[in-house]
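Hi C.,

You asked whether I'd gotten around to modeling the 186-residue construct. I have! Everything is below, sequence then structure, no commentary in between.
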Amino acid sequence: MATQTRVGMFQALSNFQIARDRAATLSQNLINLRNESLQEMLSDFANSEHKLEFVKTIDGVDFINDSRATNPNAVWFAMESMNQPIVWITNMSSLELVTDDLKQLIHEKVKIVVMQGVYNTLLEDFFKKMNKDVYSVVDLEEAVRTAFYASLAGETVLFSPGVVSAGMYRTYRERGEMFKNAVAQL
């Protein structure tokens, strides 16, 4: 009986060690996969067109193309990386898209909001209650002109839409190219 108990304990210990070794191998593979994915994402991000892409400085105003910002988290990241007051061009059409973290950055860093696209009174009123100057425009060329003429030297016009193109443009790339073309026309 004692021998069977020892054999059973030995098998259980052996099974445990095998499971532990498999878990360690799996864990290491996941870490390697995560690191590779992270490296891929970062290399995709660095010098990426339409992601925090410096376009031009005109009369001391910097223009940044962040057309790839298709969600509120991406807008938050863009705003967080800015060191100058922001004139923000957005396509957000719903107050639900403005997260608490994004509200805080808008409060701290944004001077002017240029809402391009669908007009939303609730969103406009929300930004005005935050003491932001708000302009509503129909198209991207008008948004760029409005942002430029409302800004001062030392400020940044940040085109960070916060939503997918949603029918106005086929892709964020097309939207980003339209932004760069509008800046070139100033």
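If it helps when you're writing up: The longest helix spans residues 2-45.

Thanks,
B.
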